UniProtKB/TrEMBL annotation:
Belongs to the FKBP-type PPIase family. Residues 1-22 form the signal peptide. Residues 99-198 form the PPIase FKBP-type domain. This is Peptidyl-prolyl cis-trans isomerase.
Length: 208
């Protein structure tokens, strides 16, 4: 189910910046006017706010660098990190590697905009509108086969972890976007629950 509690937390962090922009020629709201700087400012503000929360001792917020960088460079650039809010902590041990495969539930949306103040949902793993994990088969995917921000999150997750992950466009769908659903330069949020993972060369069993 879409995590409105998490969105509320993010909106509180980001309350000082508005979403709507107006076109100079028509005077009408344009969904994507200044979309790149708006998204960059959005992500940077949240990242800086989360840094302060972490500094204050909060352990439910985390910042991770892209999987291909060392932890020592965390936060050096907005486009090199993801922001994580831990919704549920799993009990599994170990984390998937870049060469592994996983089964996971996920729910994905763009960050808020004029028409979609709680974000536009563009993808999810659930088979029905109920978003019920008990009746939906978790999606099988290669850790190396998803966007960098998603891949980075998976490589830090344990089985049973449920995270909300904020991804800058540089670790998402970049400048080109994803079809018509996600324009270029879009900050993304993924709710991810890691259900299982499988080592390289291991057959991923049929889900029952």
């Amino acid at each position: 189910m879409k995590n409105y509690k998490f969105l509320y937390l993010v909106l509180l962090l980001f309350a000082v910046i508005g979403f709507a922009s107006c076109g100079e020629s028509s005077g009408q709201e344009d969904e994507y006017v200044n979309w790149q700087p708006r998204n960059e400012t959005y992500f940077t503000h949240i990242r800086d706010s989360v840094r302060q929360l972490i500094k204050s001792g909060r352990t439910d917020w985390r910042i991770y660098p892209i999987w291909s960088q060392a932890d020592s460079v965390v936060g050096s650039k907005s486009d090199s990190v993801i922001i994580v809010h831990v919704e549920e902590a799993g009990k599994g041990s170990g984390c998937p590697l870049y060469t592994d495969s996983v089964r996971a539930h996920y729910y994905a949306w763009r960050m808020p905009s004029t028409t979609y103040p709680t974000g536009y949902v563009f993808d999810n793993s659930y088979s029905t509108n109920s978003y019920d994990e008990s009746t939906s088969i978790p999606t099988k995917m290669a850790v190396s086969g998803v966007i960098d921000g998603f891949s980075t999150a998976l490589q830090h997750m344990h089985i049973g972890d449920k995270w909300s992950v904020i991804i800058p466009y540089q670790l998402g769908y970049g400048m080109s976007g994803y079809g018509t659903a996600v324009p270029g330069f879009s900050t993304l949020v993924f709710d991810i629950k890691l259900v299982a993972y499988y080592k390289r060369g291991q057959t991923v069993p049929v889900w029952k």
